[in-house]
Amino acid sequence: MILIVDDRPENIFSLKTILELHSFPTDSALSGEEALKKTLKHSYALIILDVQMPGMDGFEVAEVLSGNNHTKDIPIIFLSAASTDKKFITKGYSSGAIDYIIKPIDPDILLLKVTTFYKLYEQKRELNIVQENLKLEIEFRKRAEHQALEKLQELHSTLESIPQIAFTATTDGVIDFVNEHWFQYTPTTKNFPPNHPDDPCIKKEWDKSIASGYPLEMEVRIKKDGEEKYRYHLLRALPVKEEKTITKWVGSFTDIEEQKQAVKRKDEFLTIASHELKTPLTSIKAYIQLMDMMTSADDKVKTYVDRTLLQINKLDNLINDLLDISKIESGKLKFDMKELDFKHLLATTVDTLHQIHPDFNFVMVGNVSAKIQGNDVRLEQVIINFINNAIKYAPKSKEIQLITEIRDKHLYFGVKDFGIGISKENQENVFTKFFRVTESGVPIQGLGIGLYICSEILKRHNAAFGVESEPGKGSTFYFSIPFIS
Ligand code: ADP
Fold first, then answer.
1. Parallel/antiparallel/unpaired status of strands 26-29 and 2-5
2. Atom 20, ligand 1: residue with shortest CA distance
3. What's the 426 CA to ligand 1 centre distance in angstroms?
4. Ligand 1 pocket member 448 (CB < 6 A)
5. What pLDDT, in 10s, does the model give residues 372-406?
6. Is ligand 1 within 6 A of the CB of residue 393?
7. Which of 1.10.287.130, 1.10.8.420, 3.40.250.10, 2.30.110.10 is the CATH number of 259-330?
């Protein structure tokens, strides 16, 4: 908007008319004082200022405008009766643009000057906006940088305060921070502390994680600089993400030597104990079987002998499970694989179970024929385990479905019961060693190792396995194994 300042309304009127005809918005003031008041309230692109006015004259108004930050840049066109020394006019008004027009006003000259000033004003305004935005942007970035730095310092202090070895790395896997503990193991931050030659190479696993973006978790033995003894550490490294993009990695080595030793001692005890138990039990079993053969069917003692044999078999299974566990732990659970007819294997297994549990109804669903590569004794162990669990955990139901199907070049086998079922969160853990569901409220005996052994056997058969279940309705334990034909 253009402010026209003149003590004569008719002058204002004629200027207003010319300017508005050419689409310039205008405002007016009848004195220098009024003009100053208006400039404080509004923002003007240009002021057309009459030099001679009663009260404050044009120069005085210009003087005041030049002293105010808000108004010092407004261009001024003076209207004067005679040619005025320009130098005098600009005195004290250094930054604002200045020009003059001699009365009587030539409308063409007025418009030319007004257009020029207006354009200048517009350009300046745009420049100011750009500058302002730039300033904001710089401030924003500075603040963000400052915050990021603060966060980083906070993270470093936290990592310094923990008892583990800790480090951070860039997205390319370059270690860029380590805490004090790190230097007890290696003097350099370029590489990880050297690990035991028999353990997997940390660098290789690290590179895999960096390439895939997946967290790293591995157990490795590392030793302090100058010491001989390696100690087990759990190395974990997690990607730190901002809006789904990895920005850095944070990792730690936790000393787990004590836990490792405790587990080792427990495993050794289990192995020794189960071996020691196995030998006398085998003799007892042989004697009882002998007694069984020596007693006739109508002999009252035979009932007791059979019951004893049943209990001995249970004990035998338990000890075998414990022995299996120690074999798994020491990597000695090995078995031969050969071509098997699964339908035949299932039929003989179910036959045996039917004799032990004659009151149960084993319903064959599908029952397809398929040849697979596997170990018959171990697969039978899995089937028996699934079925025994179906019997154990479905005390009110007598039906068990045995489902065989061909799915995607795999043989699917499932044992479906109509028992207590398993909640979603527990389903994830049932194949874990020593895991038992406790909240079902139904006290059923067990050690929580059967399914763990099954899972290890199935893994060695390259089989997928799992459970589908609904609490109160029942469960289906299944495996899916590649078939040959
Ligand atoms: P155990 O039966 O000796 O406790 P398992 O390893 O065979 O050990 O099973 C682990 C746990 O899984 C069991 O304690 C039980 O809570 C749950 N489970 C296994 N099979 C079933 C099933 N068919 N129905 C409900 N829960 C089951």
1. parallel
2. 389
3. 10
4. yes
5. 999 999 999 999 999 999 999 998 999 999 999 99
6. yes
7. 1.10.287.130
